Amino acid sequence: MYIKITLKDCQDIVNENLQGGGKHSELEVAIAKHAIAIHEKLDSVNNSRNTLFEALYGIYVKATNAAGEDLKNKRLKDLQGASKTLFAASVALDQEAQKLA
Fold first, then answer.
1. Rounded-to-integer distance, Cα 101 and Cα 98, Å
2. What tens-digit pLDDT sequence spans the chain (101 residues)?
3. Residue 10: which of 99, 63, 24, 93 has the closest Cα?
4. Which residue among 8, 33, 82, 89 has its CA within the 20 to 30 Å range from the CA of 66?
């Protein structure tokens, strides 16, 4: 049989024991203290995990933006090169058209 005890229940048990309440056994108090310690450790682990996740996500965003900027710059250079080539071709065609006219 399992008994569901919340964090608040554990805190109440520990507080009653600290205030001299003798309604709970030493085992119950020890289990409550252990449960509180585990809960605090889980909170610490979750906070560390969230901090790491935020840091990793920040790195991912920076890397994605950098890669995007590199691709944009490369594409811009390609377009500039193509533009120069097309401009030269159009000037040559324009000169030929003027000769024919």
1. 5
2. 677 889 999 999 999 999 987 688 899 999 999 999 999 999 888 888 888 888 888 888 887 777 777 777 777 777 777 777 788 888 888 888 777 75
3. 24
4. 82
**Whether the predicted model's global pTM rises above the 0.90 cut:** no
Structure tokens at 32: 């409550």
How many whole angstroms separate alpha carbon 89 and alpha carbon 52? 55
Token digits of residue 61: 């965003």
**Maximum Cα–Cα distance across the chain:** 112
- Listed by start position, the domains of the chain span 7-100
End-to-end CA distance of the chain: 102
